[in-house]
Amino acid sequence: MQIKQQVDKLSDHKARSLLLQMLLHTEMLRSGNYSDEDYMTSMKKFYQAVLTFDKETPPIQGGNIHIVFSDSSAGSLKQAIKKLNMSDRVITIPINFSIGPLWQLHQIEGLEKRRDWLFEHINLEDEFIFDYIPRIEESWMKLQALPEQCKIFIWGCENAHEQAGIAYAVYLLREKNNQVYIGLDQEHQQSLTRQDILHTGELAPEQWMEYIKNVENYLLLSIDERQKWIELWVTLAQSKDVFLRTWKEGRLTPVSEHYLDEMIIAKARELQKGKEFMKSTRLIGEVIGHLDQPIGDLFIEYRLRTLAFLGVFELKGVPRAMRFYSVRLKSNE
Known about the structure:
The protein is of the alpha/beta class and 333 residues long. Helix 7 packs across helix 10 (223-236) and helix 11 (261-271) packs across helix 12 (280-289). The strands form 3 sheets. Strands 2-1-3-4-5 form a 5-stranded mixed sheet, sandwiched between helices. The chain contains 13 helices and 10 strands. It has helices at 2-9, 12-30, 36-52, 71-83, 108-121, 126-144, 160-172, 186-193, 205-213, 223-236, 261-271, 280-289, 297-309, and strands at residues 65-68, 89-92, 152-155, 180-183, 219-220, 244-248, 251-255, 278-279, 313-317, 325-329. The protein folds into 3 domains: 2-52, no CATH class; 65-236, no CATH class; 261-329, Arc Repressor Mutant, subunit A, CATH 1.10.10.10.
């Protein structure tokens, strides 16, 4: 049987990963958090994954390749490419590099440790956790399948998330001979948009269109420049106890995960009226609105929960997602 032949080809890691995901989905069904229909849909996906896991990813055909690091960036960029009637393709590496461990993230072991950290600290949908490693592995396969004649553009603004992402992408491309370009620096951002852009996820399709029209003006990496990016990633991938990064004075800087706690408390003091509870989403939104880095609301929510567990805040509701609870600063009375 074909299914038996495919199972025999599975590596120990792949077999354990699939078994774990199937058991987790079964546990969700048993606990009532999954419908029978959703469960069967997931089982069919696992079945298909076994049948097709060893199929080679076909080489990407067409024009230039664009690499971005979030679904929001990819969505707007794809719309821009479509409007320009271009054959360019977009590859998304769905990792928020500003938070969480980056240790050996170019290997399966590193991905597993990061996934476990996210599961233990960040309020994420179960489906996100289950699909986390397969989505990143898919981006790896697409990068390895790139034909040598295509040009590669790695997009990132001056922030910790995308600068670390650029280093990661250049490392993954270390054995490819393609021409690799980097954008966007502050000069290009301001000349084309006349405003500061914190991250590429803020760009509308019309702004992306302007960038794509000017791609030849971006930095073509030399061999030495590629090596510097590779060395940066190797350094990042060696750290085991860094869970937050920021961009300071033009440098990627590791900081304590408590780095934003005082800001969260200060914004709570500004918003709190007497002893009333405030929606956690309101407080988190206020903090996000005053950040100059795309750290993300989920990390702020994690720190808010942590401060509550430490007795700084009181909670009302169930903190399984930010929309389900309210907070107030704990009174000293």
